[in-house]
Amino acid sequence: MTFPVDITRAELLCYLVVAEFVAMARTGEWLRTDHLVESGRIWCNANGARFDWQERISLGQIAAELAPRVRGTFGLTRERSLVPLFVDGWMLDRESPGVCGIYEVCAARLRRST
User: Fold this and answer.
1) Could you tell me which of 10, 11, 40, 84 has the fewest CB atoms within 10 Å of its CB?
2) Going along the chain, which residue ranges are E strands?
3) 7 to each of 13, 17, 20, 51, how far by Cα in Å?
4) Total domain count for the chain?
5) pLDDT of 9-68, one tens digit each?
C-alpha cells in the first residue's frame, strides 16, 4: 500500500516512531502492534486527523521498521533524552530539533513508499 506524502501522514509516523523510542527507553522493548494501532488512534483523535484502520496499521508497521534503525542517530536512547521532544503531555514539540529531524526521516521514508 502506498500513500501520497503529506504533512499529516508524516506527523503521525513521526509520533509513532517517538512512541517506539519511549517504549524502548521505559521497558526495553518495542511496542506491540496493538499498542502502535492504539497510539495511532489516540493521535488521530487528538489532532482531528482521519485515517482508516488500514492506513494506521501500515504507518505503524513503517514506524516499527524505522524506529530501531534511527534511534541511535538522534541519541534518544534514555527516557531523559526524550523529554525535550514533548510539550503539554504527549504532544510533540514541532519546534524541537529532535522532532524536526525525526519528521524529516519519516517524510523521506514515506516519499520512498509512493
Assistant:
1) 84
2) 86-87, 91-92
3) 10, 15, 20, 13
4) 1
5) 999 999 999 999 999 999 999 999 889 989 999 999 999 999 888 888 899 999 999 999
Amino acid code (one letter) for 65: E
Q: Torsions phi, psi of 92, nearest 5?
A: -70, 140
Is position 2 within any domain? no
Range of the domain at 76: 7-113
Question: Which cell is 48 given?
Answer: 482531528
Output the pTM of the full model. 0.90
Angstrom distance (rounded) from CA 110 to CA 33: 19
Unique residue bearing C-alpha cell 482531528: 48
Backbone angles phi, psi at 66, to 5 degrees: -80, -40
Closest by Cα among 27, 29, 17 to 71: 17
- Classified as helix, coil or strand, 92 is strand
In which residue are the cell numbers 514533548 written? 86
